[in-house]
Amino acid sequence: MSALAIPHRTFSPRLARLPGWTVLVCWTAAVLLPLYILVVSCFKTTAEIYDNRLGLPQSWAFDNFVRAWTRADLGHNFINSLIVTGGAVILTIVVSAMAAYPLSRYRLGWNAIMLGLFLSGIMLPIRLASVELFTLMRKLGLLDSLTGLILVYSAIRIPFAVFIFANFMRVLPSELDEAARMDGAGEVRILFQIILPMVKPAVSIVAIFTAIAVWNDFFFPLIFIFDDRYKTVPLAISVFVGQFRTDWGLVFASLAISMAPILIMYCLLARQIREGVGAGGGMK
Q: Each residue of 103-147: pLDDT tens digit?
């Protein structure tokens, strides 16, 4: 009987892990297939893409990248996107850290209410207020300006960032603040020189999530930007999409070019993000 029980003990753990591995394999395929299509389509003509979507290109030339860069003026639009993304990331981190600091380090009676208000900002879709936001931007003279985009994106991302910072700052020992105050440090110095360096994973999480959302956004530049000088990369890529004809080779090439900065940023911050996810899993 014991000999017959050995196979059951050997294979049951493997069978128990089978559903999890199945989900992981399916998820991996769902992620890698679009990336594969993007990579091979960058080197194809539109006719090749329609003839064989999954096949390899006939030639691995970089003509699509060169044409996409010149026709869409991606160099200038890259600078615009970098200014908007960088400005939104910096402003979001600074304002959110300053808002999360008193909510997480001070014992105030209205902390829960304020956090609830910030959480409501995460749940409410901002696009429902597009008309009112457009009217406000026009009255403030912020249409057709990169500054207007930076302010809009920062306002949208601040609720999420406050929630992340508050959870990370809350677990830090209060003795840090008390020791710094005894040494004569003010609240601003405590925040930016003591607290913020200790929550680098939170800074990385806020930075990468904000950068991805801002860099890839097409909606707000579409309704706020009318001058070609202030177009961002997603808005510039739309020139290849026409009513009757779309040059898909140039679309895929320009999409691949636009992905490069975000991939580089993620690679630089990957370790901090993994540490932040691990630390966040142990928070109470």
A: 888 777 777 777 777 777 778 788 888 888 999 999 999 999 999
Half-sphere exposure (Cβ direction) of 243: Cα atoms closer than 13 Å: 0
Residues 6 or more apart whose Cβ sits within 8 Å of residue 43: 57, 59, 60, 61, 62, 64, 249
Which among 239, 251, 210 is positioned nearest to 49, based on CA atoms? Answer: 251
Overall fold of domain 70-281: MetI-like fold (1.10.3720)
What span, in angstroms and rounded, lies between the C-alpha atoms of 266 and 260?
A: 10
Distance CA 236, CA 181 (A): 51
Condensed to tens digits (0 to 9), the pLDDT of residues 231-245 reads 999 998 888 887 677
Token pair for 256: 């691949």
- The DSSP code for 181 is H
Those residues whose C-beta lies under 8 Å from the C-beta of residue 23, and which sit 6 or more positions away, are none
> Helices 200-215 & 146-170, crossing angle to 10 degrees?
150
**Bridge partners of 241?**
246
Q: Which residues pair with 246 in a beta bridge?
A: 241
Contacts of 196 (CB under 8 A, 6+ apart): 97, 203
Do 38 and 252 touch, CB atoms closer than 8 A? yes
Task: Judge whether 211 and 161 are in contact, CB under 8 Å.
Answer: no
CA 136 to mean position of chain CA atoms: 26
CA pseudo-torsion sign 14, 20, 25, 28: negative
